[in-house]
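user: Kindly work through both lines:
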Amino acid sequence: MANDRYDFAVALAHKAGNLGMEYFRRLDTLTITSKGHQDLVSEADRDVETLVRKEIAAVFPDDGIVGEEYGTVEGTSGYTWVIDPIDGTANFVSGIPQWCVILACVRGDETVIGVIREPNTGETFRAALGRGAYVNDRKIAASSSTSVAVGSTGVGFNGRTAATDVVNAVGALISKGGIFFRNASGGLMLAYAASGRLIGYIEPHMNSWDCLAGMLIAAEAGNRMEAVNIPHAVHHGCRVVVGAPGVYDELKMIADTSFAPLPEKYSAA
């Protein structure tokens, strides 16, 4: 059944991405509202998520669903889909072609499927647990870098944690000769880390729909990452530290010394 879901997820990510592109080509007609600091939502987000939920319910009606826009549907199959219809909405509504559709599927304490579809480039980053990671049909691997001074590191920021977290992390990275990268889509940055385009990615807190798919893809590509309590992360998110084998320890140290402890509501402790 996991294989069925993997093929289904890849096809659904394409379908959802196509719908997103229809809206992206007519941005002047979109209704856009703010959910908070730097957190926007458009009718494209809602309609793409509605499509994804309907497709999942039709094919796997006993599966659970957790999504950014419409909350949680409890399932009985043991599988839960974690979905972000458009990651990088700020880019999307500004006409910047760096956004993606994210689909993850969790079973028990493991993420078993991850798909990130970037419609503007036609790239689908994908992985199933134990089966390697791919962009479209090409196998991908973590960067071979052995120093944060060689390559670029993705650094994420959000309004849920202290601004000093990212300021400290960027400062620490630069002091080590590193370069930071941010494109306002955590999902895409994790995909780029998975494929070796970035040497790693760190963020003090990410929601599950933004990170679980990318973390699986990155792990299947050979990256190292900080351990995460998946059942807790599905509903509360988690800190994310992902790095190529040769730089992970440096990135973990930067995260440990730069990020404040997570607020209790986000902590898995």
